[in-house]
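Task: complex structure prediction.
Instruction: return structure tokens for all chains below.
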Amino acid sequence: MSASTISVPDAASSSVTGRIRSPRIPARLLLLLPAIIYLAVLTQAPFILTLWYSVHKWILDQPDLGRPWVGIENFKYAITQDTVFQQAVLTTLIITVLIIAVSLLLGLGFALLLNRKFFGRGVVRALMIAPFFVMPTVNAVVWKNFFLDPIIGLFDWLLTSLHLARVDFLTSYPKLSIVAIASWQWTPFMMLILLAGLQGMSEEVREAARIDGAAGWAEFRHITLPLLARYIELCILLGTIYVLNLFGEIRVATQGGPGTESTTVPYYVYQTIHDYNDVGSAAALGVLAVVFASLIAAGLLRLLVRTFREGQA
Amino acid sequence: MSSQSFAAGPGRQRLGQAAVYAAVFLTMAFFMFPFVWMISMALKPAGEVFDFPPSLVPAHPTLHNFQSALNPSFLRYALNSVIVAAATTALTIPVALLSAYSLSRLRFPGRKSIMTIVIITQLLPLAVLVIPMYQILADWHLLNTYVGLVITYLAFTVPVSVWLLRGFLVGLPVELEEAAQIDGSTRIGAFFRIVVPLTAPGIAAAATYVFFLSWQEFLFALSFLSGDMSTLPIGVLSYIGEHTTNWGLLMASSTLVCVPVFVVFFFLQRQFIAGLVQGSVKG
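Output:
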């Protein structure tokens, strides 16, 4: 935690030096403006191009149609008539919330565990992150063929050994299978962030709470959890960005099926381009996905803030 | 640092410690299992891969799969991956550092919304970007080149890095730079002598993360590169055939792909986590 040692509260210092600093701002602007412009162009150009495509009809394998302007037609179709898209939105919501909830809860449990002192903690912690470094596609290949396969998979062997019926997980529970595959990969990441939060907590705060009679669950609920709030926020934000874009796992494990049961928005966007060559519609779906994703992220964060307000009250 | 909340009494404490070890062991098993399975498969000879019931320990372990995995085309893919990931990291960090620096130092209207917009547009499904990027790269004759792929990667590595680094720079008092300037440093000198060293943990975290993202990226590499120019994620998946798959070879190469990032992380984990958390939680 090196940076915290040199940080000084912003407000206290800026009032003193503000007067001296202000004349230099033009020079700074000249020096730094290119960086901001570059940032804007680099990150926003693809998005703006996408917006542009989304108001055109553009089908790759029908070049004679040209690229006529269609206004909000692509959006209107997606929202009012495209049932696959509507289902994909729901699937994405379910899968994302489940993956984040499962990996966050497991990650929190494991972080609390690893926050205890025991022999070899450093090595254990380093090894536990291993799943995060397996390529997502390879991870899905391993799960699909060696664990979830209804004939030769490990889970099947466990079930039949226990004299239970065989289950074809990827066909019967495609969404939950995807959740299991992705949660396994994301739990260590959540765990590491939360562990850093736990280790940054001062022992005095806990001590004081314990003297006031908080112990066990109460200490966890009213002291630990609120202090972890910002770390949980970070987990949710980073998790949402990448889990919403989940692609390799679905491509390998279910191809969006059976039917369209595990088709998520990103996968449907991919299909729209790859299988139907429909760039305009895909772009519109992409733009809708951004709106939709920011709503989910905002919703999750708001829920979180409310939970912690109650916790501190 | 730690948080033993077990009640007093040596007996209970020892029991608690045993419970912790048991729990740690189970957790390890849970996390490591598919990973260990991958390595176990890589060590099995071809006839053993689909033995039923499945066994974790190979009956006749062999390094044959690893030997055949290290073939010339795999090494070529590895070289491509290293070049692309290293170049992406080397370009992302200066751009992100300068952008983050301007966002934390300049006061202009809309400063906060820039950051929000940059992050929100990261939620765009990457599949949508394949078409515009393909067009741009085709126009500039950059398809199937390192440069083309690196440019594409910058579009999503820079925003995350700006976001991580900004948290560090916000916490850095401007007075430090001003003091250096009074002592005779130029503004740029102050930037390199004060800002860069004090942001080092954040830079290390961002660099690790960017390297990892570009090392694993699949969709763009699949769309913009082919043949000899492919990166490892694409090359490795080519072992999955339509009808037959060389499982031992696939698992051995997959193991080889994740080993470098894992080793790097093993040594950098403390800095990485501290940097990741510090920057973003503060900002």
